[in-house]
Structures are given as structure tokens and as C-alpha cells.
């Protein structure tokens, strides 16, 4: 008898148990790292136990004004933390490589806090940054790492996997908000996590993928979406379920970079989101590497280097041309 594929039991695959009270027991997680000399934690919302881990580059040139990158980690909305070792280490390397201050956001996880909780935490982080910027200008409260050393007019918002989904959804929520003096120059969606009831071609072709098998991604959506909805909900499938209001707002997004890999079952969803945004007049840059699997840059140094180079080039292009002409952000 043939052994069942590793994805046949998605709970076992994800190393989780759903408890009777609706919470999860997460049996295996990445180690959580404390802040270092290059990083520190700032409380965001103590009631929600959220925080921002700030990373700064080593050897900052004197009198320099660094850009800011707000970052949202991956984990299918149910796993991991801004302090999880792969994300902490990646942000440390990005801060150095990009010469950028990185604000990595600790957001609430599902199913204990189903969507839109993570989006609400993301908006709160963006508004926190706006308030810090206003404090720096007006002589009010502002974190010492931000007060004199950053350029608040050069802000970027990046996320990986579920974090890429957060980037899209937080942009919808803040596109009409006065964020001045913060100016979001660009959005970066790395291997963004989107879904739908009907499988895409890449999901069907890679349904037994060792990183994102289809039963596991279906379980992730069932644990993070609001109760009583399916995967065609607008949070997971904006292509099918976006209404006139969402379409109008996405047309005012700043320049957007979408990065993906050919062996990621989610890659077709990412391509479709890129085309959707282009259709609304957004300046979209895409990089789809034919090789590579989901989250490969966390474990493959060459993939990480290529991603950082792509992000760096995108940030430079945004800085030289200014924000997209249709963007209010």
C-alpha cells in the first residue's frame, strides 16, 4: 500500500492541535530571540500584547537620514512572531543590507484572534509611526532611534506570506488616512498568501508541496477567516470578492513590488493580484523566479541575497521617481 502524502493530516503537518475553547496548541515553533544591540522592542498595544521590534543598521553614517520599512512576518496568520529566529535574523540582515530602519510588527494570531485582528494591529502600527513622526517635528514624544535619524517621507511597507496579505489589506485601510508627514513610497508583497474556493493551476499542480500543501493552506484559512465565511471572502480572494469601494481604493495604492517563486503553490494567486492592481492603474513591478519554494529566502542565502537586491532596487526607484501619481499615501 502506498503511504499517504505528508499533507493528508494538515493538523499533524502544521504541528498544531485545536482545543475545545477554539484556541490552538502550537507544538513546534521557531525559537524566539531577544532584542540585540541592533534591535529593541517598543510596546504597541499592551492590551493586545502587540509590539514593534525596531532594527537599525550597523555603522550608520553620521548625519544620515534612513528610510523606514514596516515589516509583517509570515506564518499563515496562526504561527510565529516578530521575535521568531528566522524573521528576527532576516530583519537584522535587511537593515544592514538596505541601510534602513525596520519596524517589525508583532500582530495577534488566529484562531484566538481571527481576521481582521491582524489588519487592525497593522493599521495601529502605521498610525504609531505617523504619531512618532509628528512628535519628532513638533517637539513631542518620539523614539530616540527615529527622532533624528530617519526620513519619514521615505517609508515602505513589506510583508512575507501572510504578511504580504497584510500589506495589501492594510493599504486598503489607510489609503485615505492622513499619514503626514509619513509618506508611503511603496508596497512590497513577498510570496503573499491569498486563496480561493477553486484551486488555481499552481495549487492543483503543487497540491502535495512539502511547504504549502493544499490541505494545510485550506486549514490555515479556516482558522484565520471570520467564522462562517469561505475562502472566497474578500480577505483571502480580493480578485473574486472586491467590491466597487475596494477597487476604488486599490487604484490609489503607491508603487507595488510583488515577488514570488515558481515552485510555490501560491504563485498564481500572486500573479493574479499583480494583474488586478495593474488593471486599477497601480504601478506594479513583479519578480517571479522560476526556481524557489515558499519562504525559501529564510533558509537559502542566495535567495535572500537576490530578494534584498530586488527590494533595494525597488526602493531606489521609488525614491527617484516619487510616489505613484495616483497614490494618496
TrEMBL record:
InterPro entries given in the database record: AB_hydrolase_3, Carboxylest/Gibb_receptor, Lipase_GDXG_HIS_AS
Source organism superkingdom: Eukaryota
Hydrolase is among the record's keywords: yes
Presence of the UniProt keyword Hydrolase in the record: yes
One GO MF term attached to the UniProt entry: hydrolase activity
One Pfam family from the record: Abhydrolase_3
Residue stretches making up the Alpha/beta hydrolase fold-3 domain: 69-296
Keyword tags: Hydrolase
Similarity comment: family membership: Belongs to the 'GDXG' lipolytic enzyme family.
Protein name: Alpha/beta hydrolase fold-3
Organism whose genome encodes this protein: Arabidopsis suecica (Swedish thale-cress)
